[in-house]
Amino acid sequence: MSKDVKVFALSTCIHCKHCKEFLDERGQEYECVYVDKLTGDERKQVIDEIKKVNPSLSFPTVIVNGKVIVGFDKAEIVQALEE
Amino acid sequence: MDAKQLFNMLGPIQAKKGYQFNPDASMTMDLMEMLLVNKERYGHMACPCRLASGNYEMDRDIICPCAYREPDVAEYGSCFCGLYVDQRWIDGSIPHKVVPERRPPEKVLAGLGLE
Fold first, then answer.
1. How many CA atoms within 13 Å lie on the side-chain side of A23?
2. What are the strands of the beta sheet with A67-70, ordered from one edge?
3. Count of domains in chain A?
4. What number of CA atoms fall less than 13 Å from residue B86's CA on the CB side?
5. Under an 8 A CB cutoff, do B49 and A51 touch?
6. What residues of chain A lie within 8 A of the CB of B98, using their CB?
7. Do A47 and B50 touch (CB under 8 A)?
8. Model confidence over B10-49: pLDDT tens digits?
9. Which among A16, A47, A73 has CB closest to B114?
10. Rounded Cα distance, A6 and A60, in Å
11. Are B63 and B46 in contact (CB under 8 A)?
């Protein structure tokens, strides 16, 4: 069953870059949102969305089928992808 | 200034303070590039792994080296973005864990005017 994966990231964040590379290597599709590239209301809405699932507002924030992984935690991401 | 020049400038300064760059050269150079991107974008070298506001005063605690480097390296052997590490991290005597964000989220929101 395909997984719904979303990555909230910053375009300058190395961990976000490595996380995306890791998902690419696995052939895992995902939606990536570069929050630092957003402005105005759009940025505010996305920050509100992140705050709900990751109150520390850190990056990357990865959501796999609703499961939230804070930071590029490879083991947690793999576990969520393989559940 | 380019990434190599920044690397050469910062290295000795930070080594005197007891901080070493991540031995993963490509990661370190990527981070040098990103510090320069933020310098260009915000006027100061905000941490590449944090959402900066662009306001110097509001971002002061996350201007690299950030205010959280010392406690993070002491606890995890690495700073939040992974640029600065200690010897334990390099020789593997401390596990390489994801460093959790120490910065209070209120500071992130205040900087963005979203309290």
1. 25
2. A31-34, A5-9, A61-64, A67-70
3. 1
4. 18
5. no
6. 15, 70-73
7. no
8. 999 999 999 999 999 999 999 999 999 999 999 999 999 9
9. A47
10. 10
11. yes
Alpha carbon distance A16, A40 (integer Å): 22
Please tell me the distance from the alpha carbon of residue B34 to that of residue B46, in angstroms, as a whole number: 9
> CA-to-CA distance for B78 and B93, rounded, in angstroms?
12
Find the CATH number of the domain harbouring A69. Answer: 3.40.30.10
φ, ψ for residue B78, nearest 5 deg: -150, 150
Q: In terms of residue numbers, what domain contains A24?
A: 5-82
Structure tokens at A77: 């991401």
Interior/surface letters A40-59, b for 16+ CB within 10 angstroms, e for the rest: eeebeeebebbbebbebbbb
Q: Looking at residue A59, what is its pLDDT?
A: 98
Q: Are A5 and A64 in contact (CB under 8 A)?
A: yes
Asked if A68 contacts A61 with a C-beta cutoff of 8 angstroms, the reply is yes
Angstrom CA distances, B1 to B42, B67, B75, B87, B106, stand at: 16, 24, 33, 29, 33
Using one digit for the tens of pLDDT, what is the confidence trace for B66-83? 999 999 999 999 999 999
